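Protein 1 of 2
SEQ + STRUCT:
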Amino acid sequence: SSLKVELISAGDHQHPLLNISWNLSPDGSIQELIATMICIQSPWEYVCFRCNYSKRFKSEVVQGKPWLFYYAEHPASPETSYLFTAFNIPPPNIGEDLPEQALQLKTPGCENNLMKNLKYCQDDVDVLWKPNISLCLINNNVMEINFTTHEQSSRYAVYLVNNASKQDIDTTTIPWSNNSRVTVRFEGSYPETLYVEIDPRFPSCLNDCTQ
């Protein structure tokens, strides 16, 4: 497969989309091909989707060109580094490791025409954010955190901190969400006193936003 990625518009005030396209190699292996797996990795997520081909390919090319497919439903965040990988199922040589195509892309910042109309990019001052954090211990080993998101934060770093030592017990990063409330769960053993820190990423402060 030949892998390409570009940004496309999804309309005003909507996150641009990652338009992922791939060609199928015009050789005999295409006749056994049943699916292609595409994976997207960013600093806060790793997701994969599988494109199943509904019928066996009867020809190696279509209208004289390699078969071309697209996936354009994954939103793109500003100033984010993405790694894309793709591999075919089954591999050309059964029993061998899956050969994969890999591609890196860093999306532009708020100065880009596709990004600048995002609400995230239109606020140049600190955002008044009220996360309304709740913390609940479930069955003595699962810590559940709920908080209110803000549409202008592109991601949230969530920390569980030991109140006595001020050391991080656990941490995770979650991407932008259009849900008003999100839930994060940690599993383990915990000290008697701890607290939660949530680090948002607003356009005005990026990695230095108030926790």
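Protein 2 of 2
SEQ + STRUCT:
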Amino acid sequence: AAVEDPIADETAAVEDPIADEIAAVEETVGEEPAASEANLFEEEEPAEPTVDEIAQIETVDLFLTDKIGLCVHVALNDQYISGDNDFLAFTCAGRRVEQLVSETWSDDQDRAVFTLDLAARQMTDQVTLQMNVGGTDGTPVNCSVRTYADAILAGTEYTEQEKEMVRAMLNYGSYTQLYAGYNTDSLAAAGLYEEGQDPVLNGEGPDLTEYAYRYELKDQEDGLQVGKASLLLGTDVSIRFYYQPGAGKTAEDYSLFLEGYLENELTLGYDQYKDMYYAEIEHISPMDLGRMYTLVICEASAPDTDSPVATVDFGALSYCCSMIQNKEAADASRNLSRAIYNYYEAANAF
């Protein structure tokens, strides 16, 4: 019993290398791979497209023949999903305007076209453009009317008539700034002309007698008083003609209309600062600055065009004519009037 069996002990002591290897392999396979190793086996999800990729601001154009402003062409790619609240924001001179994608029109390349109207005095104002898609802002882009006007003037693909139109527009903007005292350190036409070459300052005139106001009071007993006219220089031009009803009468006692035009093409109102009523023709394009209108004023109780109380022939250049002919008018008014006339001539040549 005390004798040990060396063979039995040796057999018991022998380990099974194959079984151990199998167990080790199973243990390795069963372990969780390290995080760095796990990424090698997982597919990465594609990154979400940015706003700039979905809605790309490609080009900016200028309005030339109808008003002052910018046209922004934005390419919306195949990844764009239309949203009711997607917009392009315009920020200029402390004012922010948002135009929805749904409010745009499409150009010949199927791009969305956004528009911003600017006043004539704002041609050098910086405008910041920024798309917003799904509540996320894109990269802001800065520009101005002068920026893109310079591109036209430097371009070889534009005609001389187009370039002259741009020069006249910028010069009109400059003299509007000087007249209004607005941002005069950055004039729209700065550096545009050599000394002595500015057409506004180069010479006298022009003779605008053919555009002079013509007023005729048909009913001398009515007491209607006619005041001066004034121009409103916004994104386009409007002209106001002021009048005062006769003694004991109100504006409701008269019927006013433009001869040959629809009734809604004349805006009537009251100016509390001048204490006078007015008839206003709005949205006069550069090409129509030389158009003359006939305002007919009749009694409301008898709107007979054959026997009106008064008639007035006038237009935007009527104001310019009166300023240029008035030697006592301020230089700012006379120069602006010349610039407006040059703008009109360039628009029609274009």
